[in-house]
Design goal:
This protein is α/β, with parallel strands linked by helices and about 425 residues long. It has twelve helices and 25 strands. Helix content is about 25%, strand content about 30%. The radius of gyration is 22 Å and the shape is globular.
Amino acid sequence: MPGVLIAAPGSGAGKTTVTLALLRLLKTLGHDVRGAKSGPDYIDPRFHEAACGAECLNLDAWAMVPDRLRILAAGNGFLVVEGAMGLFDGTPPAGKGAAADVAQSLAIPVVLVVNASHMAQSVAALVRGFAAHDPRITIAGVILNNIGSDRHERLLRLALEPLGVPVLAALHRNPDLTLPSRHLGLVQAGERADLDAFLDKAAIELGKSLDVDRLLQIAQPVRPAKTPTARLRPPAQTIAIARDQAFAFAYPHMLNDWRTAGAELRFFSPLADDPVPEADFVYLPGGYPELHAGHLSTAKIFLTTLRNAAQCAEIYGECGGYMTLGETLIDAQGVAHAMAGLLPLATSFEKRRLHLGYRSLTALRGPFQGSFNGHEFHYATTLKTDGTPLFRASDAEGMALPDMGLVNGKVAGSFAHLIDVKHPT
């Protein structure tokens, strides 16, 4: 099926709002449509799913080989991929993993969202530069965003006309079409009671100017994969997985890989004080445990059954899950909350410090054997870490980092989110 990639010159242009509006609009018009997200993002995909009702996968051109991207992107329905940051922004030094790499691997065109709020005729120079920058990439259309008036729109359209790149839509400035954010990105989809109303309004606004027929015409089929690629192997036959607003950051492609290999997934909610289901392996994904630390520290059934599970099952935590497995988590107000106490770890959000970047990881021990590509993004400060490390690590440029994570008997975890198996280069 055909697809397009929605990109922008940089962050803050309105890619997410435009993508959500497009997904909801096409769904409303009766099209079979699905979304995907470029890069290591957990929040935008859940908005995509709310907009169109189809599962949204991550397509990460740094962590995944091209054929893995193509396999994940294959499927029924018109594919709308949302880029991350600017179209050509990736890891240093060359920008590997940018949204442009996803478009090139899938052989789909780019629709460039331009925040036109502070420009007029200069829009032509910007679009011309992006269209000519990389011959592998086709800028097949432009969506103008944050337009100030009808006159402003006319100036922009006249400036772009000689380029031959069609203006597919023009969205005027509308404060109602903004999404609230938090330090790791947007507020989660499940936290917005008015989400459906917002998506409907965004679709209506986009539909006023979008040339739907032209958009469908410029889309191109996703390039098929040439060879099968390795999947993430399940760590056990039965896997208990925490899933709620505190533990929402689990990649769908990982869970799908585990299911495909025959694993049984059993979900539970620590925030609801659910008991940990009987399983061979317990997985605590990342999320926002710092926002719910007080609640988690009093979830007696969850904590008791988690500690009991450590006697017979392996337990693994990523980022927020890792911190929950520790002894203490200090929230942004400086209040210390007792956690599960299964790892010799104490963390704090009182003084935030950004840790961000891709990670190449080799397991030293623990439930996952081999080498992986992953990502780290958090503001927690480690106050105490005392024990056996889980991964040997390096950054996206191959520079060695301190060993990551901890292992304590059957319990393990780290701040890194595993994305995919590391393939030979």
